[in-house]
């Protein structure tokens, strides 16, 4: 498929519209049940620790399967995988809603269904990101990612309070809604083409699954910039996600209204919307390395008041400001690595970039719940913040990251 030359053509491309609809509907389905899952887990079990482990087990299943899913995605028709993932979300989250409605939902059944849904999403969910590179060209890729960042931030901002509001009306409403959104994603997937699958299948036939799996990790581990970026991102992600879970679980334990908890979570998403607008403006001109270093430094500065102050208003404001630099980091640094990776390896490279940080973050929910009980809220925030500070130092100290140029020079730049 010919690469689009202008960002305006995104919305005139029928395949991009189908892709965007499927990806957005899936994102809404994921967002609208995330907060409610923790609330439901606490309601069914009556324990903060159990509620924390429910989120952790789901994330472990999702991230654990995603490690192997990237290779599978590169070897099969991505359109069919997107459709099957949507079908699984529709059935499994719908089942939770129905069982809860008739009062037959135990904590064990909730764990089994949510972990299964998360595992399938982890294994196949990367198919949408892997397919984007077949639709959008290298030069416009950072702009496309900034659009996605804004979309994701908007979804997360509205999804969290809407999830809390729906849960306050009836605990099963968020799960019925999630099931419906996955159904929309499945329908939209039929508007996609198979992309470059024919080429990928021919190449995959020459190698075993294991060889293809290892090739993705070898590609990433041989590139110093990728290794440093992933290492720093893993520490940063652990710190940020830990703080988010600490705030959410602390308020849940204090029996704060679920709608208010959702609104607190929406603050960081509002910051990310502002950040995505900035990223969209600078995506084609800003020097990637310097911009990313500045973004990490800003997040570290926003964290300091959260550590030294126990004031809830200060924490909420700083937590919201933390969201501003993230879309810049994702659209520029992550966009650069994806753009330099071969199209046939997008699924595998996506795994090597995200799996380490996501696996570390998968334990944040359980750790936050345990630390809150043992040492309190303020000390818990301090523990998670320290890991982000370490990741920031790695980014600022890396010469190879600081020297990454702006997107017009990406084709000539060496990764």
From TrEMBL:
Gene3D superfamilies in the record = MFS general substrate transporter like domains
Q: Which InterPro entries match?
A: MFS, MFS_dom, MFS_trans_sf
Where is the protein situated, by its record's location annotation? Cell membrane
How does the protein's chain sit in the membrane according to the entry? Multi-pass membrane protein
From the UniProt record, which GO molecular function terms apply? Answer: transmembrane transporter activity
Q: Which superkingdom, per the lineage?
A: Bacteria
Q: Which residues form the signal peptide?
A: none
Which segments does the entry list as coiled coil?
A: none
Does this UniProt record's set of keywords contain NAD? no
PANTHER family, alphabetized: INTEGRAL MEMBRANE EFFLUX PROTEIN-RELATED (PTHR23513), MAJOR FACILITATOR SUPERFAMILY ASSOCIATED DOMAIN-CONTAINING PROTEIN (PTHR23513:SF6)
Q: What is this protein called?
A: Major facilitator superfamily MFS_1
The source organism is Bifidobacterium [indicum] DSM 20214 = LMG 11587
